[in-house]
Amino acid sequence: GSERLAYALADESLGVLGARRMIVAHTVQKVITPRCDGKIWAVDVGISRYYGGALQVLEILDGKEFKVLRE
Question: Is 40 helix (H, G, I), strand (E, B) or coil?
Fold first, then answer.
């Protein structure tokens, strides 16, 4: 299904880039969301006044620990 395709595309993209994870933005989410077992993080939460989203940040510690901070 679409979830399997998402995993395959994530693995292919990360392989091409030689990366373990990717941070993406452009499509507004309600909350910062990990996808594909944390390989992809969707971080666009629309914090501008136009979208009215709540302030959120993704904290990455030592490239291993991920924490979503919210107001």
Answer: strand
Query: DSSP code of 53?
Result: P
Q: Are 27 and 44 in contact (CB under 8 A)?
A: yes
The pLDDT tens digits of the residues spanning 28-50 come to 989 999 999 999 999 999 988 88
Q: Does residue 22 contact residue 10 with C-beta atoms inside 8 Å?
A: yes
Q: Are 45 and 28 in contact (CB under 8 A)?
A: yes
Asked if 23 and 14 touch (Cβ cutoff 8 Å), the reply is: no
Predicted model pTM: 0.85
